[in-house]
Task: structure prediction
Amino acid sequence: MIQEGKEEKVEEKRTEAAIRAAVEAILFAAGDSVEVSRLAAALELEPAEMEDILRRMMLRYEEEDRGIRLVELEDSWQLCTKTEHYEELIRVVKQPKKYTLTEVLLETLSIVAYKQPVTKLEIEKIRGVKSDHAVNKLVEYGLIEEVGRMDAPGRPILFGTTEDFLRSFGVSSVEELPKISQQQMEDFKEEAEEELGQTSEKQESEDKKGALPA
Result:
């Protein structure tokens, strides 16, 4: 029974619409991906409940009248613009830097994606050639990054793919990548050996041109 002079406090349950609005505000302000655990903690929800709401939000953003979409990146979520609005977007905001992925870079990126975490030496063993330039370029493009150090002499750097890699290839996690066979890995090695042969021939030709007559 309620005592006179005191009001009964009734805690209102927050609606899912209010939760969606809060999530949208957080992700918009963050500008980058935010882990499910952090969103759940901020909104005082269980991670599983937060995950369910995010997946329903993702479907709502796929409607034709929305210019942004909600994407999942491993255990994080981010608001991104839809690719079909790219042409209109670059007329207003700064055009993003474009990069070209050559066959060499794609081969190296594939090895990192499927073998990660992986050292540069392991990449070179698979490709059969030095891969300093390819690894450095992929780091520069933000597609791979240092993810740790191997517990071995010299503490070699371990490389793995980044969230930019997932965004660029339209997958939520590396588990969604198509399976690659051992034969395809062998093909990478053969192509690398051909590349090495072509480089050697080019260098020999340049050396001959630059040689002084006896």
Residues 4-11, 199-203 have pLDDT under 50 and may be disordered. The first strand starts at residue 34 and ends at 35. The two ends are 113 Å apart (CA to CA). Residues 182-210 form the longest helix (29 residues).
